[in-house]
Design a protein that fits this description.
Elements (H helix, E strand, L loop, with lengths): L5 E2 L1 E3 L27 E3 L8 E12 L2 E12 L5 E8 L4 E10 L2 E4 L1 E4 H12 L6 E5 L4 E9 L3 E12 L2 E2 L2 E5 L10 E8 L6 E2 L8 E3 L2 E8 L9 E4 L6 E7 L2 E9 L5 E2 L5 E7 L9 H15 L2 E8 L7 E5 L5 H9 L19 E5 L19 E6 L7 H9 L5 E3 L6 H4 L5 E2 L2 E8 L1 E7 L7 E8 L5 E7 L5 E7 L4 E2 L4 H14 L7 H11 L6 E5 L3 H7 L5 H41 L26 H5 L22 E2 L10 E2 L10 E5 L7 H8 L2 H15 L3 H13 L3 H9 L1 H4 L4 H13 L3 H14 L4 H13 L3 H13 L9 H15 L17 E9 L4 E8 L5 E2 L11 E2 L10 E5 L5 E12 L8 E11 L5 E9 L5 E9 L1
Parallel strand pairs: 1-6, 2-6, 4-15, 20-35, 23-24, 23-26, 26-27, 27-28
Antiparallel strand pairs: 2-3, 4-5, 5-12, 6-11, 7-8, 7-12, 9-36, 10-11, 10-36, 13-14, 14-19, 15-18, 16-19, 17-18, 20-21, 21-32, 22-29, 24-25, 30-33, 31-32, 33-34, 37-38, 39-48, 40-44, 40-46, 41-42, 41-45, 43-44, 45-48, 46-47
Helix pairs in contact: 6-7, 11-12, 11-13, 12-13, 13-14, 16-17, 16-18, 17-18, 18-19, 18-20, 19-20
Length: about 950
Amino acid sequence: MESLHRRIGLLCCLAAGLHGGAVAARAPLPPVAAVTAPVLQVKGAEVPVQLRRVSVDSQVAGGLGETRIEMEFFNPSARVLEGQLAFPLADGQQVAGFALDIDGTLRDAVPVAKDKGRQVFEAIERRRVDPGLLEQTAGNQFRLRIYPIPARGSRRVALVVRQTLPADAQGLRWSLPLQFARNAQQVDVHLQASGGGTPRPVSAADWAFVLHDGRYHARWQGAGAALPSLAQWTVPQVRQADVVTGTHEGQRYLLAQVPVASQVRARTMPSRVGLLWDASGSAVRRNREAELAVLDAYFRAIGTGRVQLTVLRDEAEPVRDFAIRGGDWSALRAYLQALPLDGASALGAWTPRADIEEYVLVSDGLANYGARALPALRAGQRLYAISGAGENTDVPRLRAWTSAHAGRVLVLTGAADAATVAPQLLQQGVQVMSLEGHGVDQLVAEVSDAAQGWVRVHGAVRDDNGTVILRLRGADGGIVTERIAVSAARDVAGGLVAHAWARAKLADWAGDPSRHDARIRSLSQQFGLVGADTSLIVLETLDDYLANGIRPPAPLRADYDRLHALGVDDAAHARSARLEQIAGQLAARRRWWETRWPKQAPPRVEQQKSRPVALRESAPVAALQAFAEPRAADEMRAPAPAPVPIAVTAAAPAGRPAMDVAGDRASNSGAIAISLAPWAPDSDYARRLRAASAGELYRTYLQERAAHADSSAFYLDVADLLLAKDQRALALRVLSNLAEMQLENRHVLRVLGYRLMQAGAAAQAVPVFRDVLALGEEEPQSFRDLGLALEADGQYPAALSALYEVVLRPWDARFSGISLIALDEATTLAAREQLDAGLIDPRLRAPMPLDLRVVLGWDSDNSDMDLWVTDPNGERAYYGNRLTYQGGAMSEDFTGGYGPEQFSLREAKPGVYKVEANFFGSREQLVTGATTLTLRLSTHWGTARQQDQQVTLRLKDQADTVLVGEFEVR
């Protein structure tokens, strides 16, 4: 629904100044480049939103840093606005808190599952009250959504960012994220540091620190324009073990910083290397020249050897072998430079080879397609990763992959970084051999700063007299044992130590997030850490928290717990009532299905000349009410014959509930054919592409792409043309670009899944629809689409479970009708494949085979598409005529988006049935420039003779109608 309120984009680049890339051993970390001050942009407002005040409160203790940033935004316009603040964080930084002012008081956000957070925010926003949502978008990118910023009023928001400070030979590097405060009218900065020496400035922010109560303090006040471009200090650190503990929810956690010998040695280089080159569409954002410069140094060090190249896109290309002689890898280099960058990123879609000594992955790590977990490497195989994507790199994933295989991740922001990064690909550093705890468990070791002389150990303390034993292998091969005693620790107030442990655990699981999904979600919500599965949300009233099952912060928690307990029984009752409702609807549909509708020519009724054929009296009234509202008596037709039930019960395997299976018989024993109408886009680029030969088509697409790179319709059209010319692999590659275009846009991903299904690529569609479900669990179409894809891929039990979820869950009123359609699909699947139907309520096990079935769905929310089916009598079934003379039934009209709408006919009289789709109207901006429709036409549906054809097409304008195809019943 289009809001009356304007939206604003508060675009901000929040970087703590840490590159996240590796640096040369014993070299100090380079100063961080200044980041351009943000500009608050207000689309359509009379005057820009003003950043009035910013306060920055940052503290360092025990090698950990926490920065609290409070901002006040003022809206001088006469319109209520919604704000969006987008920002990246540096590697190692984590959002650990968020607060929004409610009635003048800052209210802390609480963790919530990411999909639920977005769902709740958008639902409450429609009521024009006060939600706030902070979520991770991709990699270490974040987005803060605030509503409303009142007309001529202010909103305050606070962020808390925590990190483990990086170390170098001089100490800890402490950087402040001041960039977005530079446009503020007033700024107040307060700093304090403990556990080290006097902070020494690295940048122009030479603010005086004063020792008070054992801590170093500094303060600065003034206008944002007077802030230095960079604020960074080194906190000196004594080279001895430093052990700190902290408590969270009654559990004590430990962090030990252990000094290690920082010397590194040149390692023995491999002679057989596997190079994994990410050539997906997102590679255009990487500095590939910087990556190639690092590989230059790497292959020079190897000298002579062989490289097996695997190019990664939507799938892995066949391995190509290259020889390296005297460090000359020019043939391989030229091949890489000539590769087109196209397709999605399936970084796990390759097979390791046993004869490879080590692999080097060149990628940003942003896996978004197909297999995303690292394939199993054999023992002893190393893995290194190189990324020229800077802060857009998914460092946690790459670090988890490489650290598990004695390698490391090297991140570059420009060609100048290659000189400092490349040596780390050639050197042998410290390795953790073992980590053992006595009275301390859940241990994690971080070695990212080992080259700088430090290893960090995290753990959960079970015994105050516990110890941790750390065994390290130095660069020279010698083994060093370090003992860490809990009794030697000093306590650090607040959640710094506990959150550092949680961040380390999440980083440990980042290599395969799907495998650790439940643990990641649980830990993120326990500690309130924003990530791929968890967001932070603020709601206005206790009723909002209760209605959405979100436990509020402390001031509201006691009342919530009391009232929430009372609501549990209500939820169980609502579930039971829903099943009763579905059972009643199914009984009505069963009566329609059992009715023998007339197949002769309908009686001539004068009213038919001026209006659609109306509903007639026939069979049980309840059967008619399942599909249409009663009409006036003068519009009724002659009654049909009485219903004749036809059903048999098939025996289920022993011990499994039986599914009522209807007979395979249809009134028409002849063939039923489907013919699809040709459809082709009429754009200029489409005409040029159609004119290209099969051999030139892909090259022509690459030439056209620059002008249409942001158009999902462009990729859909090209894929169709490639499929038409039997270039299936290239068509699927082009289609997969939709996964790269708009990260976490469920509408675009849904279109991608539909088109993959049409192309017969169900295996590729399943993970796409899993992503859609993760982004839109509040929409029943997400479960249904996944269920149909799983069915097409032969994963029948999982498909049945997903389809039945549509039946069980309560949905928003705008999705009325989908449950019965999904139930038809679930029961038909269970009967056809003889699945265990135990999860389906016994009252609902009633599959009903059909001669003809058409289902229409579409990709845009708040849009109304209509399915029209005209039978051999010339009668059109549509939302205004939901039951035809011969018994064709149209499901409920979906006017709020997505569909599906379904046409059903049990017994089809001979003749031609015309299928059309009509664009009735839309109230939203379309994600593909037009609404993408998906139609599935089925004959003998639910029987052994079932045949399906699926088609997708696009409609742009209201009242646009297109012929989809025809059934011919002989």
